[in-house]
Amino acid sequence: MKHMKLIRFVVTDPRHRLKVGYKYRFNAVMTENKYIWNVTDCARMSGFREILTPGGRIKTHVRKIYYSNGVFRNGTEMGDSGYGIMDDPLNLVREHVAHDHRPDAEAKVGIMDTPFNKNDKTIFRFRIVELFNDGRLQLFSKRAPILHKALFGVMVGKRVIFAPEIDGYLVNIRPEFRHEPAIGSLVVCKPDWDNERRKYYTVNVQLMHATRLQTVYKPVFRESDQLAYAFRVRGRPSPAFSGFFTCHHFGLVENRYDLPYEIKENEE
User: Fold this and answer.
1) pTM assigned to the model
2) Which domain of life is it from (predicted)?
């Protein structure tokens, strides 16, 4: 079945008292909603229990997916063992790096299950909500090589740059830089990390060329009338993440409303 992560197995029988972190063997039947299954009987398996955080969430390890900023994995490449692909909505992990920079370096986190949503077309079910420092982590601000590198970015607000190479952090232009590039401009900047404010700043911004992205200021979310800048870009559906779009200017972008793509031959 497509989008297996959407399936929820629901226990309605009060005789079955399940506890978070334990592993169970069970039988279930499908309801009228193909994504909701009712558990008919279950039995706890011995000798297995996940470690829980003080807040009662499952504690596990995640690895960064190096070709997708802000995305992490628990388990195998295909996600068939463990909790699969997840994001970091509170930005807990991306501000830290392991002393061990090997590809298999891990961070210890607490994860949260997301509510059922039949309209969710992505592969993200669990989300990172806690980070535990076991002595192997250091603040991202100490990772000096990236702080002194000229980065590509897009002006996404008044004196604000989006730079996809630094995990989606925004770069703020300091007042000392008097020129104000237009929103949508493609720029190169050299960001420095302000450890007290936990933000990137720059005083060195250069326009890449006169052309800039087409923008429109309008309501972009179906859930509200809030105005925001929308940018016209070219890209393609992500081959790695169903429900996502990838482009040069912004990296991995969620196709939140499952919109159809306009496919053009020989174009991305």
Assistant:
1) 0.65
2) Eukaryota
